[in-house]
Amino acid sequence: MKFAKVTARLDGLGSEKWAVHIEGRRRAALGERMIFLSIGEPDAPPPQAILDEADRQMRAGRLRYAEGRGEINVRRSLARLYTRQTGRAIHENQFIYLPGTQTALYAAMMTVVDEGEEVLMADPYYATYEGVIAAAGGIPVPIRVDPDHGFHLKARDVEKAITPKTRALLMNTPSNPTGAVFTRAEIEKIGKLCEAHDLWIISDEVYATLTYGNTVFASPFDVPELEKRTIVVSSISKSHALPGFRCGWIAASPEFCDRCIPVTETMLFGSQPFLEDAMAFALDTHFPELDAMKRAYEERARALVKALAGSHRVSARMPEGGMFVMVDVRKTGLSGEAFAWRLLEEENVVTMPGESFGAGGSGHLRVALTVSAEEMAEACKRIARLAERI
Ligand SMILES: Cc1ncc(COP(=O)(O)O)c(C=O)c1O
To answer: Which residues does a 6 A CB cutoff place in the pocket of ligand 1?
Structure first.
């Protein structure tokens, strides 16, 4: 049988990135004790009150077809959130409720990128970006960012990468995997280039609530001149430790939303009203346990950086945000991939090779901050031990 071209474009963009993790899982299933630092899944439980709200709404009969854009209550909650964040009036017609950031990314790409058009992104980049661009027929254009400058994307490198075929910049702040957080000044500088070349800015802000130290989150959507070309994609997967709820959204101009709705409706025909209610409740409520979750990530990151500070072979910088730390293994002479495999084989610690996130991640491991402080300390000991042996 003949399959559509999209299946060929996406072939090979998937599972090999996760080979170390999959092997770790296989060994764990056979009874080996492994430390998993490979997956960005919150280890803290979600606030119980959000689960209760979903349950209450489900039992109250919120099980009918939902409005295609998302129910009005959830879009009102989003409008309040973004009005607070931007300091401008943001309206309910500037949102589409979607099942998770990934779906929102897909819908955004399908709405603005045509076959053969180029999409810029910082390299290293989140593992699904190549696929989501390729699904729309676009061509990913990675722009290397320098680990020795905190993996920040420079406007002059963006400028060099722009061609007549460039249609969009896909940015991710705070970044997975690097932990870099764009400053407002960086966004304004890069935004000017996007204005000059009439590019869309797709801004993946799934880690927006997770910033550390003095770092302040900023979005291109906050900049009034960039609002009409910015498409924010986000969710409560990380902020509220609820990846399984698949509650996410797009924030963009009313014109973008009107054009995007037919794209999402042909696939989804709406979402689950009781989960939309739960997300509205989550966005409208302050949960102290989520502050504690964020503090725990920050403390683990600081502990990891400190634990590796004594090593001459491996090092790590404090991330500005997100749920990951990049561990630099370049001085061992091994690639991130080779180091990650040896760490799995010899020390039972499962990490993601930096190369899984593009060539810009080479010579690094991505470590998720989703294990207890004790496990993290033990993993650091083993990482340093292996580095000394090499
Ligand atoms: C940068 C980034 N974007 C998107 C996603 C997907 O998030 P969601 O669960 O909201 O689809 C993830 C998940 O790890 C991520 O790290």
So the answer is: 40, 100-102, 126, 172, 176, 204, 206, 235, 237, 243, 248
| CA-175 nearest atom, ligand 1 | 1
Kindly state whether residues 138 and 172 are assigned to the same domain: yes
Q: Are residues 221 and 96 in the same domain?
A: yes
| Amino acid in the structure at residue 285 | T
Counting from 1 in the atom list of ligand 1, the atom nearest the Cα of 248 is: 10
Domain that holds residue 110: 64-284
Tokens at 178, concatenated:
């690097």
Whether 375 is in a domain gets the answer yes
Which residue has the least CA distance to atom 7 on ligand 1? 101
Q: Report how far ligand 1's centroid is from the alpha carbon of 324 (Å).
A: 13
pTM passes above 0.85: yes
Alpha helices in the chain (DSSP H): 5-10, 19-29, 48-59, 72-86, 101-112, 129-135, 155-161, 184-196, 254-268, 273-284, 288-309, 336-347, 373-389
pLDDT digits (tens, 9 = 90+) for 197-207: 999 999 999 99
Q: Are residues 121 and 135 in the same domain?
A: yes
Please tell me the total number of residues recorded for the chain in this structure: 390
Residue range 358-380, pLDDT digits in tens: 999 999 999 999 999 999 999 99
Question: What CATH number is attached to the domain comprising 320?
Answer: 3.90.1150.10
